Amino acid sequence: MSRLTTLNDFILLNQQDFPFATGELSSILNDIALASKLIRRDVRMAGLADHILGAEGNINVQGEAQQKLDVVADNAFINAFMASGVVCGIASEENDDFVAFETVDAKKGKYVVLFDPLDGSSNIDVNVSIGTIFSVYRRVSMVGGPATLDDMLQPGTAQVAAGYVLYGSSTMLVYTTGNGVNGFTLDPSIGEYCLSHPSMNMPENGRFYAMNEGNINECDLGLVEYIRYCQSRENQTGKPYSGRYIGSLVADFHRNLIKGGIYIYPAVEASPEGRLRLLYECNPLAFLAEQAGGLATTGKDRIMDIVPSSLHQRVPYFVGSKIMVEKAMSFLK
Ligand code: AFP
């Protein structure tokens, strides 16, 4: 029997690929892995345990009803990072403002982590895949002081690591530190993430498109034409692409990463800036997409080049197989 490579083994083996290899980034990845196992445990109990299903009763800064599991997941990550001594602050979808950790040890941390603790959380109550998305940056403020807003508002090109956890039919952790993309599947019997998808490459082209087509009458006419093209026989497959939209960005992205495809959330009347958040949804998946040979743009510009102006900034998002994203962009006026 060949030996399993656990996430821990893999991180240790590849530590030298990371430009600032001091073991600190590795410890952040281990914290994320641990927090994700706690969340997975709760996700698996949804439907059985009262404290897990349903709304928390709060509305977050995005104007969305927080689910109980959103809050559980947010706390699991914050607690893991706060205790790490490596992370000086965080920003997340669930908190209006960023959090600068106050202990002396945390202030010595060189990193900040931006995350969406449970993406696609409206799918929790209906037993559909959800995910966690994360992005790690080196702080730009002075080590020893509190984390600042400038630490959080860095362009995607400054990310040192990014990834996601998908709580699906199995639980997977997929990440990059800028040296390709690797995927690990949780073996629940031993409680370890094991390398299952080494060196992931996104096919250059695909036959899946993912968009909330309920919005079609509110989009740019060029995009309407692109969707018609997807539904026609004019594309490279000679038959209509298959539409697949889960409503959990992580799950839609993961399918496209493996099989090839495009995910689109454009500017629409209700969300003229787009719906998805640049810092903890679009940038991390853009880093993964590019590392796997794909593309991520606003329809015009590269996502990772955007200099953020606020924590919860939204942008239009076109991400996936390179040829498909380029084709979609060619239709936009
Ligand atoms: P939630 O986490 O609030 O469910 O948002 C999910 C999400 O950010 C992304 O994961 C989905 O693809 C997208 O929003 C769904 O938005 P629509 O419901 O407007 O299609």
What report would you give on this structure?
This protein is α+β, with helices and mostly antiparallel strands. Helix content is 29%, strand content 24%. It contains 9 helices and 17 strands. The chain has helices at 7-14, 24-45, 68-82, 104-107, 149-152, 221-230, 249-259, 278-291, 322-331, and strands spanning 55-59, 65-67, 87-92, 99-100, 111-119, 130-138, 161-167, 171-176, 181-187, 192-197, 208-210, 242-243, 262-265, 276-277, 295-297, 314-315, 317-320. It has an 8-stranded mixed β-sheet, sandwiched between helices. A hairpin with a 4-residue loop joins β9 and β10. The chain is globular. The protein starts with 6 loop residues before the first helix and ends with a helix. The mean pLDDT is 92. The structure holds 1,6-di-O-phosphono-alpha-D-fructofuranose. 1,6-di-O-phosphono-alpha-D-fructofuranose binds next to loops. 1,6-di-O-phosphono-alpha-D-fructofuranose is lined by residues 64, 119-122, 212, 247-249, 275-276.
